[in-house]
Amino acid sequence: MLIRISLFFLLVTLIGITSFSMIDKKSLENRGYIECKGTPSGWTPGMATKYALNKSYCL
User: What is the value of pTM for the model shown?
Assistant: First the structure.
């Protein structure tokens, strides 16, 4: 029973994280932000994305 509850919460968490990520990304793009290439300094690789209003701010 405890395993089923844990798996349920894991599934709900994964769905929530994925949904929030997609909605947040679309919201930023609608406001004119662009996604910068590379990893922002101070972050674990692959765990953060930098957005900017102008490509020159991505440096």
Answer: 0.61
